[in-house]
Amino acid sequence: MTKLNYEFLKSLPKAELHCHLDGSVRPKTMWEMAQKHKVKLPVDSEEKLADFLAVGDKCESLEEYLRPFDVTTSVLQWEDSLYRATYELAEDAAEENVRYLEIRFSPVLHIKKGLKLTEVLDAVIKGKKQAEKDLNITIGIIICGLRHFDPEVTLKLAELTVAYKNRGVVGFDLAGAERDFPAKDHKEAFYLIINNNINTTVHAGEAYGPESIHQAIHYNRANRLGHGTRLFEDGDLLNYVNDHRIPLEMCLTSNVQTKSVVSFEKHPIKFYFDMGIRVTLNTDNRLISNTTLTREYELAVNEFGFTKEELKYLIINSFKSAFLPLKEKVELLRNATKELEKKGLQIRKDYV
Question: What are the pLDDT digits (tens) for 295-315?
Answer without folding.
Answer: 999 999 999 999 998 999 999
